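Researcher: We're teaching a course module on how sequence relates to structure. For the next exercise, students receive a sequence and then see the predicted structure as tokens, so they can try to spot secondary structure elements on their own. Here is the exercise chain.
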Amino acid sequence: MSRAEETNQNRKVKVALVTGAAQGVGLGIAQVLARHGLAVVLADIQSDLANHEADALKAQGHMALGVALDVTSAESWRAAILQSEAAFGPVDALVNNAGISPRGTAETTSEELWETCLGINLKGSWLGIRELLPGFRQRRFGRIVNIGSTRSTRPLRGLFAYGVSKAGMLAMTQQVAVEYVNDGITSNMVAPGWVDTPGERLLQKRHGREDFPAGLKNLITPEDVGEATWYVVGPAADRVNGLVLYLDAGLAVADDAGMIYLPNAQHNRYEQRL
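Model: And here is the predicted structure for the students to work with:
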């Protein structure tokens, strides 16, 4: 193998660490990346479930590892990364997916809820980036993917803390892209619309929509998010940096894609019954 071929080989993503990967969107991302040949680290605060899903991937012939991770703790991040490196070598791609989407307005959001949401969604992502950047810079290669939301740029009533956290994630994505543009590191955001997951169904039920997603269309699947993530970590996106990749069937431009249910709104122009 020539030196050029060896360098090119070393610049391929081999190991991806996905947060919030025990279920839902994060699990969908990990499954897709595994199918594309990557070693995947399923990091989640629910470590038993992460281990179970990693074992399921290994049973299918994939390389996978479940690790415990509290994204709000720098110490927990360091421990998870050490486990990942011991199993597979250096992490090449970080997928910041862990997050919560609480309901509330600027008036009804408590300080505790604000701190929790911003701590998980924004601070948690930053801590992971901070811990992995030295290695990325040393190897002059790294892929950062932040799983954002259409709501990072199109606010929606009742999603105050969530919308602010995702807007902050967008700013962080682009800030990191600018700061490390000459270090072989890319930082991009995949911004899904409404994703149909078991967790989202429970949340909708808790807020009055027991039949969710009945009657709605253009919902995104975890596998859709996984394939979009694969694009921005894969070789086709070597020159893609600072991108917001909307994955929302046009919601970011139309804001009316038959995907949103607002149980307390006086008018509900988003809902489309089939």
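Model: If you want an answer key for the exercise: The domain at 13-254 is CATH 3.40.50.720 (Rossmann fold). The beta strands are 15-19, 39-44, 64-68, 93-96, 142-147, 185-192, 244-247.
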